[in-house]
């Protein structure tokens, strides 16, 4: 599968990844400008942006880019003084594992957009879907009684704009799923009545926003939609509202017992298990040296 097709597939499943592109390469190196790869949260590298030594540096930088959601221009240099054109703003790593050459790789994190689930077939629900899409949110429409906590696991916000119907069930499901933003389009009196029926704790009640949206004096469906989206944006940018993504295993770090290099472990990282203890290596060469030393002891 081509890198572009794989990226589209990951985006559809809301799986975070990093798109890596080699922008400069200095010989001797096995990578060339234009080489591409996708890096996943568990350290998997799909594609090619350099050999095993370079991969460790790229993997570590890519995981950092996923955490910060900021692009990185990574310069991977061997140990020693190497003349390589300057790149302002680049992150430089010296990789003693490299036997020569140098790489410059652009790492672009692809984080899923906030997912807003909208319940209801009303003018406000329709306007809300339009405004959400306008600001780049992903939208899913559903009936008020069609969701379960499991189906809401990757949801940033749930907004119920059905003006009646089984609203309480979706509020309960959203709270049980840990959704960070739960909004109910209702008057203050009706909203309080629905929450009273649910028998929520004080902490749960504080998580439900009703009336929903920032108090901007909104009257029309479009204005109400703008106030709701503005409140969601405020919660994300200022309130630390999380944007959940598809769960995935995460890579970890280990120390190469031969060269002492810190290795970011991925599925293809050289590994050796002796007496039930796992040892990880930057390259198969270090693994071979470890085996030889262990056999000779």
Q: Would you spell out the secondary-structure blueprint of this structure?
A:
Layout: H1 3-12, E1 17-26, E2 36-40, E3 45-47, H2 52-68, E4 72-78, E5 91-95, E6 102-110, E7 115-119, H3 123-134, E8 138-142, E9 157-160, H4 167-176, E10 181-184, H5 188-198, H6 202-207, E11 208-209, H7 221-237, E12 252-255, E13 262-265, E14 271-274, E15 277-280, H8 284-296
Order of helices and strands: HEEEHEEEEHEEHEHHEHEEEEH
| Distance between the ends | 46 Å
Low-confidence stretches: none
Mass-distribution shape:
elongated
Can you give the helix content as a percent range? 25-40%
Please report which band the strand proportion falls in: under 5%, 5-15%, 15-25%, 25-35%, 35-45% or over 45%.
Answer: 25-35%
Number of helices: 8
Alpha-beta content class:
alpha/beta
Q: What is the CA-atom radius of gyration, in angstroms?
A: 25 Å
Q: Strand order of the main beta sheet, please?
A: 3-2-1-6-4-5
What does the main sheet amount to?
A: 6 strands, mixed
Extended strand count = 15
Overall pLDDT: 86
Domain XdhC Rossmann: 118-232
InterPro entries: MoCofactor_Util/Proc, XdhC_CoxI, XdhC_Rossmann_dom
Domain XdhC- CoxI: 11-75
Protein name: XdhC family protein
């Amino acid at each position: 599968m081509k890198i572009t097709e794989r990226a589209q597939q990951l985006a559809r499943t809301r799986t975070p990844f990093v798109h890596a592109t080699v922008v400069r390469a200095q010989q001797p190196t096995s990578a060339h400008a234009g080489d591409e790869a996708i890096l996943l949260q568990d350290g998997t590298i799909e594609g090619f942006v350099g050999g095993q030594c370079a991969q460790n540096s790229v993997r570590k930088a890519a995981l950092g880019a996923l955490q910060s959601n900021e692009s990185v221009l990574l310069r991977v240099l061997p140990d020693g003084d190497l003349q390589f054109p300057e790149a302002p703003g680049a992150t430089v790593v010296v990789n003693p594992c490299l036997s020569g050459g140098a790489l410059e790789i652009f790492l672009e994190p692809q984080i899923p957009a906030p997912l807003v689930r909208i319940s209801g077939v009303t003018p406000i629900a329709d306007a809300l879907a339009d405004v959400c899409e306008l600001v780049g949110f992903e939208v899913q429409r559903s009936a008020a009684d069609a969701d379960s906590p499991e189906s809401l696991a990757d949801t940033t916000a749930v907004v119920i704009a059905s003006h009646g119907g089984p609203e309480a069930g979706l509020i309960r499901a959203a709270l049980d799923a840990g959704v960070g933003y739960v909004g109910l389009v209702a008057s203050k009196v009706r909203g309080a009545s629905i929450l009273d029926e649910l028998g929520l704790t004080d902490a749960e009640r504080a998580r439900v926003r009703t009336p929903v949206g920032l108090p901007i004096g909104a009257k029309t469906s479009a204005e109400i939609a703008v106030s709701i989206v503005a409140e969601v944006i405020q919660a994300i940018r200022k309130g630390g509202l999380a944007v959940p993504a598809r769960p995935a295993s995460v890579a970890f770090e280990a120390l190469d017992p031969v060269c002492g290099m810190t290795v970011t472990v991925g599925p293809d990282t050289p590994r050796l298990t002796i007496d039930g203890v796992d040892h990880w290596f930057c390259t198969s060469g270090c693994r071979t040296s470890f085996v030889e030393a262990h056999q000779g002891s």
